[in-house]
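Hi everyone, sorry if this is the wrong subforum. Our group has a chain we'd like a structural model of before ordering constructs, and none of us has done structure prediction before. Sequence below.
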Amino acid sequence: MIGRLLLVGRLLVRDLRRRRTETLLLMLAITLATTSLTLGLALNTLVSFQYAQTKAATAGPDLTVEPGGNGPEALAALTPLADLPGITARSGPFPLLFTKLTANGITARVVVEGRDEAPSAVDRPVVTAGRWVTPGGVVVERAFADALGIGPGDTVTIDGRALPVSGTAVTAARTAYPHAGWRIPSTIEMEGGGLIWVAREDIPALAGTQPPSYVLMLALEHPEQGISAVDQRRLTDPAYKNPQFRGWHFRTGAELADGHARLNAPARDTLVVGSWLVTGLAIAGVAGIVAGRVIGQRRRVGLLKAVGAGPAMIAAVHLAEYLVIALVSAGLGLALGWFTAPALFGSASGLLGVAGAQPPPLRMAISAAVLALVIAAAATLGPVIDAATTGTGQALADTAAPPRRRGWTIGLSRRLPAPLLIGVRINARRPRRARLVTLNAFITAAAIGAVLTFRVQDFDPVDLGYSELPDVRVARTLQAMYLIGGAVCVLALFNAIVSTWAAVLDSRHPLAVARAIGATPVQAGLGLSVAQILPAVPGVLLGLPFGINLYLFFEGEPARHAPTSWLLTAGLTMLLTVAALTAVPALASARRPVADTLG
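Answer:
Right subforum, don't worry. Here is the predicted structure as tokens:
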């Protein structure tokens, strides 16, 4: 057993050292696929880490409570909750106003929270610029300040009263802009808006005749209890609705974390779905390289069988190399996706912490490894089985497999012009390679169709009651679309180059024979180009509508469809790219002397 393992290891190291370029290409294909998946999985995980860091830094609450009403009655209703068993710390009640704010010509709903200058036991917002609240000034939640384009030293108007901005801060007690929990007093419906803090003594002047509401911040001995900590009956009957709390607002730490995660949900879904497309391209690219490598190792297979190696040993020798490449690529893709996600998408502006400072979770590492192994297995299983079942004599002779001849293709091609005839017969000799070209074009066209459809949509902006601002989720989703589109184009280009060179090398003798019986070098070169373009055409024609429908499946019926001119331009560009990639090596190969090739 040890001897077999040593043999597999030595052959593995020898192949990796001798075929470095092909190894790098294989790693590139698998790394791009695992990177795309990791980026999708990383977004929510990074936000979860950031929320945990923010909650720890700000002494964030496990439960926030807002009564249904306002005024003295609301304050009196909160008082008994502060001393219930299971509550380890509390802050407040703090007065709340639900009003409007104007800055830089933008008027928006705003939640105004009155605070003390001294730090509180629960919810101590971290100042990220400027200073904490002082009488006569306001502190703006950082994501809200970024959306308005304001900072310390600027001036905002709150319901007609101008106040200077003394700082910006981050909290874990409310979801960041635009989901700060703005509502009409005595109602439960939430609206989009931002959050600011002012000195408690400034609340009466800002409120005018409007009685304030209040919020109570609680730290729980058992945070998982949530509302049950103040509604004891829920411990035994979760469906119980205490009439005392009708119309109240409760927010648990888990709900606040989910609110932050929703910012990245569309981009995450885009990356995860896009990773399926990249995976398909990776399988196609790896399959093209593996098939050529296994064919090049046919004589070695015969030698191993001659000395007693069985099919299992042959399969192990071949698979070991690709599984090792897959695992190394999975590690590279995991690291690349995990540590570049913050740089690509930026940290959530409503949270603290350096995203990606922690190692990736185990489940994410397992997902990347499984994906890489699936790509390697799917691409290599067929050629490896063929190698393992090849007879010893046939493998030692290293004879090429006879091409499959189909009567209908022969009958069709003999009536075609010379370049088309050559192209059709090349594809008929190697139908599997033609199918890989079709798959490559199909997936690339699908990704482009989805990106173009998304690009022309009219997305609803964030409604702030008085003004509208662009939705940051749309910008992040578009960025994710571009990332997937870029990865798909890189892999498609890589696959096209690999397929072209494989076709050039494999078709040298058939093209030489065609030239020997009268075909010109130009006709032979064009024939090889046609062999690549013909299978790409159905891929493009089917891929563009598939990409549009894939977008519809996940996003619903769009308001607009991509212009037909855009789709036609994209399709023609893809076909011209394939033709250009094929033309240069094809013409160079076709100009080689026939005698040299046949010799």
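For your construct planning: The chain has 19 helices and 14 strands. The first helix runs from residue 2 to 18.
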